[in-house]
Specification:
It is built from three helices and two strands. With 65 residues, it is of the alpha+beta class.
Amino acid sequence: MIPSKEKKIFLGAIWSSVIFENRAPSNQAGFTIFIGGARNSDIFRRFGNDLEQKVLGEFQRIHEN
């Protein structure tokens, strides 16, 4: 989970393919990103159809560092 002071669009993520077997091919990873919640309850209204792109972009930027 990401602390609210980080001001990220999403709440956190888990690597489903690490926790649960057969969630992704052996040469790939599967993950679940958590969004919304009490601190970001209007996220769907704010981003609409761009939500997926915004969340995945932020997720990728975090992992580039």
